[in-house]
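Section 5: illustrative case.
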């Protein structure tokens, strides 16, 4: 439009490194991002070279297996109480049904209490060291369950278990977005989430093995699970860095390649200090509340099925030994479900795959409600299908790793991820969860359309509209997805 003035500092103009260093207040202390120093030294990187492929192979051989292992152990540790119940912990310690139910719920109270301290600690201390330390502590807590002789002792331990496990989701989200491109996350995140199924399979198998030994009961179960977790935490301390800049198993050039690979993510690689502006932006971002209520929908049925799973199977008419073995079934089905939905996500998008998982779970829940109690094998089949719904977590996490930028904002969304009884209530929340996932997809599509339209207007008339400055290497600065003009949200 004629008469519109364009300020000099609004014209699209890349800033040099020296200019960025001078504008410290604007760029939030650039020197703190170690990634930029490595990128300055290596400018001849070819991401299609065999060298770059070798770096990805190293990442897949070290980072992904460790993340998979710790998530498997987290699921096993969280469900250990349900296997211990089949082995007689409730009768031996004279726990009432209400007390046992509270032991399952107290883990989530620990999540609530530990969420904010975890976010603060992971931004003030090295994330990888904090995470591995939390893993060692929670492994110790699991092992100490064997010494619990009363409801009060077990209640404290269950609360502490949740308090320590709450570090897992935000740490994993940060690490995956620091190591993998958005395209790679579509396959790596579901691979990581198949561990939900492996946790059920291995947990059930180990519990069944211990059940066969007359002198090894629920106490041995907790000691074994705890020892495995402690050992994994120690290995993580030495081998699992939060970002490429801290990897001992990469040289400087390989670190630069790893950083350059994720440049187009526009989500950064380093953990910066607390940023009040990003927290405010998070609280004003409608996706935070969509994700919170979506995970609440998943959390309500997940909590009950995690604690009472083997007992539910036994209620169908199976023996205790059969129930322990049959608890492996949902895990195996979950692995198949993740693989199927991952293929669907590659050919469509993340949201479609997530909704597909919900539809299968709804069918399974209807089977549990509608099939007569006398036909317990078919009802067990419905139970197996109903337990597909946690697989949708993989796709909501993919939305977060690829769709949120800025350290504080990432941790705020991770906090929303952490916070999530009747059979009909479960069915209603599964349906509502699918609707929320669809709304999140529509919001991302609208945001991308708005930005594409604005870019097209700026290109047609550079002197009209709002033209934002382009900052060199902004992908590695602590800028949010709202601040990076070229950012596009995953569908």
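Designed sequence:
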């Amino acid at each position: 439009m004629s008469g519109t003035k364009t300020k000099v500092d609004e014209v699209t103009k890349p800033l040099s490194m020296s200019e960025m260093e001078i504008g410290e207040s604007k760029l939030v202390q650039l020197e703190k991002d170690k990634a930029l120093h490595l990128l300055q030294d290596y400018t001849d990187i070819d991401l299609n070279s065999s060298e770059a492929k070798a770096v990805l192979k190293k990442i897949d051989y070290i980072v992904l297996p460790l993340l998979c292992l710790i998530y498997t152990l987290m699921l096993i540790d969280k469900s250990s109480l349900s296997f211990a119940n089949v082995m007689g912990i409730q009768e031996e310690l004279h726990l009432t049904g209400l007390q046992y139910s509270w032991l399952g719920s107290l883990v989530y109270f620990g999540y609530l209490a530990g969420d904010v301290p975890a976010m603060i600690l992971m931004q003030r201390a090295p994330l990888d060291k904090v995470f591995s330390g939390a893993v060692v502590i929670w492994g110790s807590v699991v092992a100490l369950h064997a010494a619990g002789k009363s409801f009060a002792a077990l209640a404290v331990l269950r609360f502490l278990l949740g308090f320590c496990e709450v570090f897992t989701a935000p740490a994993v989200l940060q690490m995956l977005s620091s190591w993998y491109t958005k395209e790679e996350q579509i396959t790596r995140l579901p691979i990581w989430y198949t561990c939900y199924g492996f946790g059920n399979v291995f947990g059930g198998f180990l519990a069944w093995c211990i059940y066969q030994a007359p002198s090894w009961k629920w106490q041995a179960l907790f000691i074994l699970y705890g020892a495995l977790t402690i050992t994994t935490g120690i290995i993580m301390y030495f081998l699992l860095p939060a970002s490429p800049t801290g990897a001992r198993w990469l040289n400087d050039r390989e670190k630069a390649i790893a950083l350059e690979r994720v440049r187009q993510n526009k989500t950064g690689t380093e953990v910066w200090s607390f940023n009040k502006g990003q927290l405010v932006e998070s609280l004003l971002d409608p996706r935070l509340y969509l994700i919170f209520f979506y995970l609440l929908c998943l959390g309500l049925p997940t909590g009950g099925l995690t604690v009472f799973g083997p007992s539910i199977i036994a209620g169908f008419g199976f023996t205790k030994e059969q129930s322990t073995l049959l608890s492996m079934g949902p895990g195996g089905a979950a692995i198949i479900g993740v693989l199927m939905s991952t293929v669907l996500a590659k050919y469509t998008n993340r949201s479609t795959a997530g909704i597909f998982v919900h539809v299968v779970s709804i069918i399974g829940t209807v089977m549990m409600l509608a099939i007569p109690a006398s036909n317990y094998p078919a009802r067990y089949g419905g139970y197996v299908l109903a337990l597909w719904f946690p697989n949708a977590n993989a796709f909501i996490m993919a939305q977060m790793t690829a769709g949120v930028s800025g350290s504080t904002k990432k941790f705020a969304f991770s906090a929303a991820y952490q916070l999530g009884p009747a059979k009909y209530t479960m069915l209603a929340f599964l349906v509502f969860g699918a609707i929320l996932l669809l709304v999140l997809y529509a919001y991302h599509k609208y945001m991308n359309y708005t930005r594409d339209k604005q870019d097209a207007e700026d290109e047609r008339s550079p002197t009209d509209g709002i033209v934002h400055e382009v900052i060199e290497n902004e992908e590695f600065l602590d800028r949010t997805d709202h601040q990076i003009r070229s950012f596009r949200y995953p569908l």
